[in-house]
Amino acid sequence: MTHAPGAAAEPAPPPTPPLPSRVRELPPVLPVLAVVALLALPLGPGGEGGAGPADAVSALVVLYCVLRLVRERRRPLSGTAAVLLGLPVAGLAVAAMGASSAGAGLTGMGRYLQIFVLVPAAVLLLIRGRADFRLLAWAFVGLALGQGALGVHQFLTGTGASYQGEEIRAVGTFGAQDVMGMATVVSFGLVCAVGLALGLNPLRQRIVAACCALALLVPLALSFSRGAWIATVVTIVVQLVLAGLRRALKVGAVVAALGVILVGGFGVGSAMLQERVDSITQVTDAPDQSVTDRYTMWAAAVGMWREHPLTGVGLKGFPEHRDAHASLALSAGSDTEGAGAAFRRQPLLSPHNMYLLILAEQGLIGLLALAGGWLALLVCGLRRLLRARRRSGSGLDCGLVACGLLVWQLTDFAYADIGGPSTVLTAVCLGLTAWWSLSSPAPAPRTAPSPPLREPAEKATLR
Hints:
The protein has 17 helices and four strands. By secondary structure, the protein is mainly α. The protein has one domain (about 30-35, about 55-440). The radius of gyration is 26 Å and the shape is globular. The termini are far apart.
């Protein structure tokens, strides 16, 4: 069809939106979700339990975050966030210079920067709002349910890690070389589920979250991890108190009743659980060999710190100085077996106490920088949580999850330290807490003022 001279041509159809614009609509936290999802992959039997695929993807998350910042040309962090997240760098640099070798110093500094600085900062910058935060929290719950279901299957079929001569310990895909891995993942999921259930979300979401929390109690119990039990109990109590005392009493009574029913339904496993629970109160009177080893390594860490109070013995220096400060009560290592792995003796290369590990290797400078930053994050998070509860309760679930994750981690650090594939989740948790504590809350929607009511004509006339 031809157009007459001077006639207007038909308008061209609108162009199809390019792919980059569609990609921009996706949540920026998708790479962080990939880190969480990769922790569901099984590890090779007999592996060392070190860095895994999730750690490699976490490095890509940091790179992706940097590229986004360069493209958007915006200021990456506020002044407070830059100080709190960058504070450990000074202590790490000093401890790296004091390491026994340049390789050990660089390796140790890279690991600490990954877990406590770079990945948390990337998660903080990639979260756009509460919807992204809740997406990550539900991802934690999903990972915990998957690992927990596998752990329960290991207990029922006798295919778990060795515990008191029986291969019944629930370890999930982490294997016998990392018996704390599944317990950590399940604990994080349980804390997230409790926070989501205590918020002001729609009723259906709260019911689903509460059911997930109750389901995760079973694999947590079957992990036989005393440190995870203690940290989880402390955290849930804190979450309930922060949500309101009346609700805390109601939920606490229900959880206690269901816990008794669940533990009573384990049959022969209930006796082992009772024995494990009783051993918590016997750590001073009649400690077992694992507790004795832990006390001995704690004393060794304190001895290292006394010799180097400010800077410590250097990053990765604890194994090298351990024998010079440990007593003869320390055993050669811990025995691991089961979950597809053959018997092996694992050397004791850390004091299983994060605070003492930092004190021994980084001294007071490192401890004040790291632990001081964690406490500052917790204080800022609690202040924002209390403000949210006093006002409209908006975002209460996010605050309970963020503060709960940090409380759990700070409590668990008294019985454990970093190490193993699940350690990258600690970095993601710190990022979630940093977003809640350091990001600016969304301003409340401004409503137009309602017009003043007109007074009756006679009153206006009298005036």
